[in-house]
Every structure is written in structure tokens, then in C-alpha cells.
Design a protein that fits this description.
631 residues; alpha/beta; Rossmann fold; Helicase, Ruva Protein, domain 3
Length: 631
């Protein structure tokens, strides 16, 4: 009697339609090779990925996170090398994935340099090995299905783009009946796995038949020039770089049409494909701002103000009002107008509640870089080479001086080709000093993030400060999960004040953020000088640690350092001359309104930093953006 595959059936996984469509597309269309399933813990990502084996009849090969490069790609067959006296290749895990399905769980925790090489091999279908004197090549015709939990850490945007398809697991958080159905199915599976698999046998066979039929139809599928234009327009609207998104979208749309028993792509196929091809490719860099409108003369401005003024007591001031002048409702020549100092005093201690929080994108985007660090601060951000015996053994290296952490496997491989010419006596292998290799260990390191928040009156209008506080708290919580140190500095009136030294306490950060008042002018130049002095001292006392300054502002300064100077030009000059070791800048544009000024963008350029708009930090807007682009 043939053995029954007792993995959880593909058709029995509740919901997750986007992820299922992505898997079926990659199994039907050989031009699609890689699928990434993103979702929270316990959302059935792994169960769905492992079910592909029984669905396709192909073996699922697991790629462990702790596998070394030699184990993944291949290395030296030590026994054969010792016997022959010449390097002999021993194929790695990827050789077992040839003709099978390659599965990587928690792919975001993998060394991103290694992940890039794995993706190269999967895309090309070949592994070319050149390492430690070993040269070889073997086939790797496989489909790669990877899963990850973005709440732990993310992968860089350029590696996300390497995945043809990316689906988000839609776990039924608020649907009680759906959650109950998930529990019923899991209980039934664990009570009687074989019976449960047989119960879904007909549905599984229906999915297999659909995929086999789609594979036969696929070579006949065509797409019109009009829909090709729609595909190009969609990728342009989400700002996808390069042509990977366009190619994946067209190939997935063709697979969708074939799965729906059609030999011609319809608009619905393209829309469904866009949801799994473009969401992870959205570019957060907005287009250049439109030039501001020509200034109007004072008479035209007065007329427009009179027309728009309904005389209500709750009328909001314009966006460019900084809290330091008269309100638009009060004529300058009115004898009862309170002086500027009195009006500003009314706004000095204005407090705004913390606005809506959200799941933030990976705004730091370290590109998976590996840095050598002497810092003992551990976290979950980037991979750092450990300076002691802690961390994961990643690779080997010739030691500089005495070796205290020997890489035995690499040492044996280095010595193996020379055993024929060495006098081994009774030894199986003789190791000499020049063969010694030491382990290079890596561990995830944290970083320090200092939030530099504009608390001036210009962010108090239209309750913009509430949204700013919500965004800052969202980023603070994200940093807490990733074990970063977080600090906060605020600037208003004529000073910048460190209100929270770098700490790991998100509760203390919350209290400081809640109590942060808003009002007064914008001393942006003073803020740059103060944060520059502080972070220069901090980075020198924490060598090797990655540091970031997240500047949240509309970029419009009105308090110069030198009397009579142009405050905005002074800020740009300061920014262009600022160089803080180990520190990168993130500028978040907190401005609002129909007319956006490019002050924050210009400031980011001068700081050589990364620019975002406040709204772009919300990761949950990804799918909404794609859907709106389609519509």
C-alpha cells in the first residue's frame, strides 16, 4: 500500500487566497521561480508552503537557516580529496533541490548576502561553485517558496524585488467563525491525519487537475497590447524600479488566465496578478514636488481670505502659520488685537494627544549589510561580525595571529589536498600551521535611533502634531521589538532639548511623547547643531554601533542662528557641512496641505539621507495603494 503524505492539505488551509494563487502561478509558469509569503506568527504560512509537496508530487527540500555556505552551495569532499590529492567537489543542499521544491522558513533571518546567492542559483537553474580550490557546476531546477514574519525583521527592498511573487497571509483576526473553523480543521488533522488527508482528497485532486490543465494551456495564452500598456502603467504608478515587476506581472497574469481555462489574458487576471506582484515592489520615494504656485499680491490674498472666511470660531489657521504671528481672523490694525507675545504665550503649552498608530515599514533599510562591530549591544537589525565566540558560525578566515576559535571543517579542507605529499605516519590527516582557519561568527546587532521632532507651532495646525506623535510612537514600538536604543530630542521656540537619552524603555518614551508640548517658532538650525554635537559624542563612545537620526519636520525654519540671516538657507548650508561618524539620516516630511513645499526634501538631499513622507511609513497602505492604482 503506497504511503500517504500526511502534510496538511493545500486545499484545507483556510483562506489565504493570494498566497494560494501565488503558489499555483509559480508551479504552472516555469518563468516564475520564487514566492515569498509574509505574515504574522501562526498564520499558516509554513503549513501552506509544506503542502506544495503533496500537491505537485515533488519533494520539498528544507534550507535551514543555520546551514553554512559550504552546506548550501557545496564544497570540498574531504575523503575523496585526501585519497586523490586534488580537490573534489561535494554538492550542497541546492543539488537536492534540483527537480524539487526549495523551502526557506524565516528567510528574513538569513544572511542576506547568502540569500542573494541562493536567489541567483534558483533564477538561473545552475549552481557554479568556485571556492577553496574547488571548481564545479550542477543543476538547480527548482521553485523556491520562502516565508517570513515582518514583525521580527524585514529584508532590504532590492532583495524583495528579487522575489517574483509576494503574498500577504490574511489571518482572520476579527472573524470569530473563521477562527473557529481554523481550530476545527487543525483538531481534525491532529486527531486523525490520514483520515483528514483523505477527506480533502477530492479537493486536492481538483486543484492538481486545474494546475495540470493550466500548464497545457499556458503556451497558448496571449496578452493584448492594451493590457501590456495597463501592466506598464500599474508598475509605474507603484514606482517599481527596473523591469522585474513588469515581467513578473505579465507572467503571473498569463498563469492566472491559464488557471481560469482561458487562452487570453483578461483585465481581471491582470488585477489579481498585480496584488501578488507589485505590493512588495512599491517605491516609497515620492515623485518630485510640483513647483509652488506664483505668489499673489496682498489684495488678491485678502479677497480670497474674505471669501473663504465663514466667521466661525473653530476655523483653522493655514498650514504655513507657525504660531508666532497674528491669526488670519484678526486684522493687523485692529486696536484690540493682542500683541504677538500674548498670542504666542497662549500656544506655548498646547498639547496634542497621540494619534493613530500603525505597522511601520523598514524605514532604516540597511540593505543587509554586514559590519564589523566591537559593540556588545545585541539586537535584531543588521548582521554584525562578533568579536568573541558568540554568534552563528558563518564562514572561515585565515587568522591574524593566535587562533582561539578554530574552524575545524575549514582547516581540514585546507589541509586535504596536501595529504598525499605529507608524511602522515599513523595520522588520518596531518594539519600544519598554514592550514589553520578561524571561525567568523555573526550575530544580529541593534542600533541607536534618535528621533529629532519638530514641536513648533507649524505642526500644531490641523492637529498635524497628533499624527506626528502617532507615527513616532509606531516607530518607537518597532524599535523596541528590534531591541534598539531609542532617544528623543524636540525643538521649538529658540532651542532644541534632549528629552529622552537613548534607552530601551518604550514605556518611558511613551510618557515623554505624550507630554511633549507644541508651539512657538522653528529653530531648525539650532536643532541641527545640538543633535550634531550630541550624536558625535555618542557615536565616539559607542564605536561600531549603527546610529540613525530620524528628523520629523516640515523643513521650514524661521529662527536663524545669526541675526538677519535667511533661516532656511542657513539650515541647508549647515546640513551640507554636517558629517557625524557612524550616523545616517532619515528625514520624514510632516507637512500637509494641497501645496507642498520641498524644504524637507532639499534638507534630506543636503544631509545625504533618506526621504519619506509621514504617510509613507504605514506598511498597511501597501495593498490599498496597489488596489487604487488598479482602479
Amino acid at each position: 500500500m503506497p504511503q500517504v503524505d500526511l502534510s496538511f492539505p493545500f486545499s484545507a488551509v483556510y483562506g489565504m487566497e493570494d498566497a494560494k494563487n501565488a503558489i499555483m502561478c509559480v508551479c504552472v509558469n516555469p518563468r516564475l521561480r520564487t514566492v515569498l509569503i509574509r505574515g504574522g506568527a501562526g498564520s499558516a504560512k509554513t503549513a501552506l508552503a509544506r503542502s506544495v509537496g503533496s500537491l505537485t508530487g515533488r519533494k520539498v527540500v528544507n534550507l535551514p537557516l543555520n546551514a553554512t555556505e559550504e552546506q548550501i552551495f557545496g564544497g570540498m569532499d574531504v575523503e575523496a580529496t585526501v585519497r586523490s590529492g586534488r580537490p573534489v567537489m561535494d554538492p550542497g543542499i541546492l543539488s537536492r533541490a534540483d527537480g524539487a521544491v526549495l523551502y526557506v522558513d524565516d528567510v528574513n533571518l538569513m544572511d542576506q548576502r547568502v540569500l542573494s546567492s541562493v536567489l541567483d542559483c534558483v533564477e538561473s537553474g545552475r549552481v557554479i561553485l568556485e571556492r577553496e580550490g574547488v571548481s564545479g557546476e550542477y543543476g538547480c531546477d527548482t521553485v523556491m517558496i520562502a516565508t517570513m514574519n515582518p514583525a521580527d525583521s524585514d529584508i532590504s527592498s532590492h532583495l524583495l524585488d528579487r522575489f517574483d511573487l509576494c503574498a500577504y497571509s490574511d489571518f482572520p483576526d476579527d472573524d470569530a467563525e473563521a477562527r473557529a473553523e481554523v481550530l476545527r480543521r487543525n483538531k481534525a488533522f491532529w486527531d486523525d491525519p490520514e483520515g483528514f488527508v483523505m477527506m480533502y482528497g477530492n479537493e486536492e485532486e481538483a486543484v492538481r487537475s486545474r494546475m495540470r490543465r493550466a500548464a497545457r494551456i499556458l503556451p497558448l495564452v496571449s496578452i493584448s497590447d492594451d493590457l501590456l500598456g495597463v501592466a506598464v502603467d500599474l508598475t509605474s504608478k507603484v514606482g517599481a524600479d527596473g523591469f522585474r515587476g513588469d515581467l513578473a506581472l505579465v507572467n503571473a497574469a498569463c498563469a492566472m488566465a491559464a488557471l481560469n481555462d482561458r487562452d487570453e489574458v483578461m483585465r481581471k487576471d491582470l488585477e489579481d496578478a498585480a496584488m501578488i506582484c507589485l505590493a512588495h515592489r512599491r517605491n516609497y520615494s515620492p515623485p518630485p514636488p510640483e513647483p509652488p504656485e506664483e505668489p499673489q499680491d496682498d489684495r488678491e490674498q485678502d479677497e480670497q481670505r474674505d471669501e473663504s472666511d465663514d466667521g466661525g470660531p473653530d476655523r483653522e489657521p493655514p498650514d504655513d502659520w507657525d504660531g508666532g504671528g497674528d491669526t488670519p481672523d484678526t486684522p493687523r490694525d485692529h486696536p484690540d488685537t493682542p500683541p504677538e507675545e500674548d498670542l504666542q504665550q497662549m500656544l506655548e503649552e498646547m498639547l496634542f494627544e497621540i494619534g493613530e498608530q500603525f505597522r511601520v515599514i523598514d524605514y532604516l533599510d540597511d540593505d543587509g549589510r554586514v559590519v564589523r562591530s566591537t559593540s556588545s549591544h545585541k539586537g535584531r537589525r543588521a548582521m554584525a561580525e562578533s568579536n568573541d565566540a558568540s554568534g552563528r558560525y558563518a564562514r572561515s578566515r585565515i587568522p591574524d595571529g593566535k587562533c582561539t576559535d578554530m574552524a575545524f571543517d575549514a582547516t581540514v579542507r585546507a589541509a586535504a589536498p596536501y595529504q598525499v605529499s605529507r608524511d602522515r605516519g599513523d595520522l588520518a590527516i596531518r594539519i600544519e600551521r598554514q592550514d589553520i582557519r578561524r571561525k567568523v561568527r555573526e550575530r544580529r546587532s541593534g542600533c541607536t535611533i534618535l528621533f529629532l521632532v519638530d514641536a513648533s507651532g507649524s505642526l500644531g495646525v490641523r492637529r498635524r502634531m497628533a499624527a506626528v506623535k502617532g507615527a513616532v510612537l509606531s516607530m518607537l514600538r518597532d524599535s523596541y521589538v528590534k531591541r534598539d536604543r531609542i532617544g528623543m530630542m524636540a525643538f521649538r521656540r529658540d532651542t532644541a532639548e534632549l528629552i529622552l537619552p537613548p534607552t530601551k524603555s518604550v514605556e518611558y518614551s511613551y510618557r515623554k511623547l505624550e507630554e511633549l508640548p507644541t508651539g512657538g517658532k522653528t529653530p531648525l538650525g539650532e536643532a541641527l547643531v545640538t543633535v550634531g554635537d550630541f550624536m558625535t559624542s555618542y557615536s565616539r563612545s559607542h564605536p561600531g554601533e549603527s546610529c540613525y537620526i530620524v528628523l520629523i519636520t516640515d523643513g521650514r525654519a524661521n529662527v536663524p542662528l545669526r541675526e538677519g540671516a535667511d533661516a532656511n538657507e542657513e539650515v541647508l548650508k549647515l546640513a551640507s557641512e554636517m558629517a557625524i561618524p557612524q550616523v545616517r539620516w532619515i528625514v520624514v516630511d510632516a507637512s500637509t496641505g494641497y501645496i507642498r513645499f520641498d524644504n524637507a526634501r532639499r534638507l534630506a538631499e543636503e544631509l545625504c539621507g533618506t526621504y519619506f513622507r509621514l504617510e509613507d511609513l504605514d506598511a498597511d497602505r501597501l495593498a490599498e495603494t496597489v488596489r487604487s492604482a488598479i482602479q
